[in-house]
Amino acid sequence: MKYQRPKGTTDIIPGESAKWQYIEQTARQLFQKYRYNEIRTPIFENFEVFSRTSGETSDIVTKEMYDFFDKGERHITLRPEGTAGVVRAYVENKLYGPEVQRPFKAFYMGPMFRYERPQSGRQRQFHQIGVEAFGVDNPTLDVEVMAMAVNLLRQCGLKDLKLVINTLGDAQSRTDYHEALVKYLKPHESELSDDSKERLVKNPLRILDSKDKQDQAIVAQAPSILDYLTPEAAIHFETVKKLLTALQIPFEIETNMVRGLDYYNHTIFEIMSNSKAFGGQWTTVCAGGRYNGLVEQLGGPEIPGIGFGVGVERLLLVLEAEKVELPIADDLDLYIVGIGEVTNTETLKLVQALRQAGYSAERDYLGRKPKGQFKSANRMNAHLTLTIGEAELQVGEAHLKNMHTGNEVTVPLADIYAGFDKIYRNAIKSEKE
């Protein structure tokens, strides 16, 4: 029987995984500068964590969630996105307490799961890197979060990006706009797709996000939420635009953008790329927004929040299409060449000592002749080789060769064990000269 990975999943094999590690490390270093700390939540949660927060009419809940009943008859869901689980952890662990500094800033990275048609950049198991910040309603934080997202993508190597923003306003803005939108859409009800007919009753704002061509033609003439903002919501959005301009971050406003999750309000945004990876069309790589009220939905106090998520698979596709060479260092510091079985114990002791001293080191395990071992050293991009045979073993020495310059010196084994740093610096000095 031939076993294959489940449909919609990918094996991230050595070589490819180095690219993932680079993206993750770049994100970790950037988030640390912004004072975000890592949070790790379960890959599965109770069904209500997502059904309650994502919205009953969202595609995630109605079509895409992997949910099941476990052996204890508990309704469980593989997480389809990162925010709701982080909010649940924030509430359950009382991270809103008076001793916790505000804003509380956290980041996460890991796999998410949605049952959808697999295609390029869209898998059933996919990976997200995201951030969440709680406890501040100031639009300045909205802009800082967007600036950090743009900074992350640029540090990863993307250049041709577009920031698109909108506002969903506060509760009163939504109520007023809801009424106006229904009034506009009702006469077109018979022309709407089946999904949008259902959403017209349950959540008409979701129709603005429809991918159906006929729906899109109808909503193109729909009223704009910007005309229904309360004075407070309008000031919030105006401040966001002003601060983005102050930071010299270009942006566009898209009034029909609502995002795919029902918990958003006030500022929402998407960062898009027109990469060849997606046919040269503007496609979202990173998205997020403000979600005041979500903490309350999951049993916590009235605390605002904002965040974003980056799809790692999509990001890597764009980097590949744009021919961005990630600076991945896979060089080997030393390769130990052992000649004859008699050197087996000593070469093992050497690689162990060098690794413990902080160097990457490798040796032969297949009994190959010296020529084969040197070929392995070349394939591994070894900077140095350390050769020891029976004669060298008897006198306690080894031959240290710089593989790039060809320079070779003889060094006592005792000096290597005593401290290799100076020997290494001298051996590779000629490379840099």
TrEMBL record:
Alphabetical GO biological process terms: histidyl-tRNA aminoacylation
One cellular-component annotation, GO: cytoplasm
GO molecular function, one term: histidine-tRNA ligase activity
Residues the record lists as binding L-histidine: 81-83, 114, 128, 132, 259, 263-264
Pfam family, one: HGTP_anticodon
Alphabetic keyword roster: Aminoacyl-tRNA synthetase, ATP-binding, Cytoplasm, Ligase, Nucleotide-binding, Protein biosynthesis
Catalytic EC class: ligase
Catalytic activity: tRNA(His) + L-histidine + ATP = L-histidyl-tRNA(His) + AMP + diphosphate + H(+)
Domain spans labelled Aminoacyl-transfer RNA synthetases class-II family profile: 23-327
Entries under InterPro entries matching the protein: aa-tRNA-synth_II, aa-tRNA-synth_II/BPL/LPL, Anticodon-bd, Anticodon-bd_dom_sf, His-tRNA-ligase, HisRS-like_core, HisRS/HisZ, HisRS_anticodon
Localization annotation: Cytoplasm
E.C. number: 6.1.1.21
Family the UniProt entry places it in: Belongs to the class-II aminoacyl-tRNA synthetase family.
Subunit details: Homodimer.
Name of the molecule in the record: Histidine--tRNA ligase
Organism expressing this protein natively: Liquorilactobacillus capillatus DSM 19910
